[in-house]
Known about the structure:
Elements: E1 4-10, H1 17-25, E2 32-39, H2 45-55, E3 59-64, H3 69-79, E4 84-87, E5 93-94, H4 98-109, E6 113-116, E7 118-124, E8 127-133, E9 138-140, H5 143-149, E10 165-168, H6 169-174, H7 185-195, E11 200-203, E12 208-211, H8 225-247
Parallel strand pairs: 1-2, 1-4, 2-3, 6-11, 7-12
Antiparallel strand pairs: 4-10, 5-12, 6-10, 7-8, 9-11
Helix pairs in contact: 7-8
Amino acid sequence: MNKITAISPVYNVEKYLRKAVESLIEQTVENLEIILVDDGSTDNSGEICDALSLEFADIQVIHQPNSGAAIARNTGIKASNGKYLYFMDPDDWMEPTMLENMFIEAEINSAELVITGFTNEYFINDEHFEIKNLSKNSKYLNQNEFRENAYKYFNNTYMAVPWNKLYLSKYIKEHNLEFPNVGWDDLHFNMEVIKDISRVCITDDTGYHFLRSRPGSETTKVFDNSLFHKRREQFIHILGIYNYWGNA
């Protein structure tokens, strides 16, 4: 069995894709399976995926009609063989030891979920700057302990996104968890992941580089009214989790 399956939904990211995938190839962890799901790209992203799979034997490419990132990630889950699942955005990149560090943390603590910090990358005109987002190293090795401390991770991007997390594949598949085809699907997915989880590790590594300022990226539309409504959905979902925990 592969140690980790890294899944990336790919759609019209020809400018960034090779850098992202090469940062996966350069990971120091052994037995890494990489699944690229080309979600009906209309640029050269699909061809780049195929070319990369010819260069690197560990890459599997799946082409599908455009269905959105959520469905693409679900396609990757179904095709995965790794003990752990990891989801990467195709316009970001990571440091070589990131996945190995997360894998070691998961193995030592029998964790169902490992959450790490990350580095926000801003490229605005000719300026470049970084902002690190991290929390201190923490281990929650029973359900009550995690639930009592989960609030610490809801006030930033920590809990919402999938690319700073390593998931135990058995846990995901036994709970029949999938990304819903809705706005902020990753937040909804992660809320379902933590509903019944018991063993969670937080690390202060910031080896994931999140490209925040790509033109057209949702994360750059700070004043977009639709994002306000998505944030509202987010808080409603968080309240639902706490109601579930309160009645458990």
